[in-house]
Amino acid sequence: MSSRRFASLLLAIVLVLGIGAGMRDRFDDWVAATDLPRLDVPVGVEVLARDGSLLRAFQVGDGRWRLEPGSVDPSFLDMLTLWEDRRFASHRGIDPAAILRAGWQAMRHGRIVSGGSTLTMQVARLLEDGPTGRWDGKLRQVRLALALERKLPKAAILDLYLRLAPYGANVEGIRAASLQWFGKEPRRLTPAQAALLVALPQSPETRRPDRFPGAARRARDRVLARAAKQGLISGAEAMAAMTEPVPTARRSFPALAPLLAARLIRENPGAGRIETTIDARLQRRAEALASRAVQGAGRRLSAAILLADHRSGEILAEVGAADWTDQGSAGFVDMTRAWRSPGSTLKPFAYALAFDAGLAHPETLIEDRPSTFGRWQPQNFDHQFRGTVSLRQALIWSLNIPVVKLAEAIGPNRLAQGLDRAGIALRLPAETAGLALVLGGAGVTLEGLATGYATIARGGRGVALSALPGRAHPLTDAVFSAVAAWQVSDILAGNPAPHGARQRQFAYKTGTSYGHRDALSVGFDGAHVGAVWLGRPDGTAVPGAFGGDLAAPVLFDLFDMISPVPLPPPPGETLTLPNSALPLPLRRFAASGQVSRVAAGPSAPDRLTLAFPPDGAIIDGRGPIIVKARGGRGPWTFLVNGRPATIASHRPESLISGPGPGFAHFTVIDADGNSATATVKAEQHELTLR
């Protein structure tokens, strides 16, 4: 449009507004008949942290970044109306004074100096994405602006501008622009930041700071100069603001808890804003922790972390992948929901159920020796056997034989039902629970494990964890008693800290799945439950990976992020006694249908045998070894490789020095000259937490 035609149009509009009543009536009818575009401008879905801060935003359907304006700094609004439309509060859609000024300037200078457009006219153009260089386009804007003023209050019109104002590329609206250029919400802007965001929409592409920083700075400074001239800011503030550099790079939009946010949107279609219980500070630190955990381990390794308040069931942090953008490590797979083998992390539940059923006590003795269950002969992870141990030791050392004996006594189906009631959903082979379940022979999710351990932490009463406010709820019925839950917690609290970590008061267990595919660690204190998984999402092995080596240090770092809450004291009815003071049936574990030898009382001496180490065992030859005899008549003499180690002991056991690596022969001789011998292989390797 030529400058003269532009001026003529503007003057004509002013004349129409000033003519007689008859023409005004027809003009009002013309405005009233205006077809309005859709005024419900779509904005991207937002997922919010518990404090209302933005976790992740999503683009609208056409790929643009456009968000609810939210709270905007008043200084920005003052600068905006001063620069664009100082009589916005009083005009009815068009500003006659501004139109007269723009028309006079156009005729005087032979070019368009100022457009005379009000904020309402700009909203009209943005709603329809209409042309600005044609007279018919300008006339449409005028008509629509007048119609908008009749239909909407000023606040609604300003809200539309704050949503639609263009800021270059695919970014629209004050909030998206503030996040893009400054990485902050627009509720608190410096004068320099506010002035730049006022200036950019006039020419969003030619003033983009990342491409044309000089043009952006000059436009910003003109806004600052006018703000100082009109008294919005002082001259000193304007001068100081002009020294601030303009941003030279676009920032990424917030993407905390990205996989969780995407899942919540899928589960809540049509929601515009989704509030969560996620703590943004903890979430940020947990994501950094997961990223560090896989550094230097290859692109295919990933990690998942979950932290919740087990008192309320609220999830505080959830990391589904170490790098959600990395295709090489399948970062798009949420490993908090993926089905994986739990390794040894289900063992504490077998102990809790056994304690609750009165089958055992933490100080009950049990045999860790080669055993057969049907045609299955499980091995300990290190292929060693430790003879007679307490159940406390068996759980801390994560021995397999004792826990399978407990699972057999409880029954696999009862164990599976207990896990289900604790909130641990199971994916069972052939949909049938077997004894291998307790060693990791089923699929579980990391969220399920965290839920189950929350049940132990809560005294046997579970809670369904949730990242949505008000969605967490207690599970029905107690899974096991508060005493059994405390006994297991007390044992797990005795687990040593991983190498390099400081010992702290919380209960935890590690797990390593068959073939080193999954490394896990789950734990809790008096208020929080945390779970960590590391591995490859495609299920391939990670050679040499153990839960104690990989996952446990991450779990300790996770709990270092929060204020520790002590574990609760034992319930009043808890039986805290040494083995020798326990009721006779609890002193030594007896399988179903058997009677404990202790409970049955002494019997006639039977044939002399070597109870530990059993023949063919692989033992740790580094330190002292307890050699135990069974039967015969004392005193007993013990030999190692034919040499006396203990002579005439009045106890059927002896603590002797380790034989060193290689094969060794242990012999016991009783008072009647009877003897028994076992040949074992002694190795020297570290005991690994699993």
Pick out its properties.
690 residues, alpha+beta, Penicillin binding protein transpeptidase fold, Beta-lactamase, Immunoglobulin-like, 5-stranded antiparallel beta sheet, 5-stranded mixed beta sheet, 22 strands, 35% helix, 16% strand, elongated, Glyco_trans_51, multifunctional enzyme, hydrolase
Can you put this structure into words, describing what you see?
- The chain has 690 residues and is an alpha+beta fold.
- Among the domains are: 3-33 and 64-242, Penicillin binding protein transpeptidase fold (Orthogonal Bundle), CATH 1.10.3810.10; 343-459 and 472-508, DD-peptidase/beta-lactamase superfamily (Beta-lactamase), CATH 3.40.710.10; 604-683, Immunoglobulins (Immunoglobulin-like, Sandwich).
- Helix content is 35%, strand content 16%.
- The chain has 22 helices and 22 strands.
- A five-stranded antiparallel beta sheet has the order 7-6-14-13-12, sandwiched between helices.
- Helix 5 crosses helix 7 (154-164) and helix 10 packs antiparallel against helix 11 (235-242).
- The longest helix has 17 residues, at 135-151.
- The radius of gyration is 37 Å and the shape is elongated.
- The N and C termini lie far apart (77 Å).
- Mean pLDDT is 88; it is low at 595-605.
- Residues 304-513 form the Penicillin-binding protein transpeptidase domain.
- It is an enzyme of class 2 (transferase).
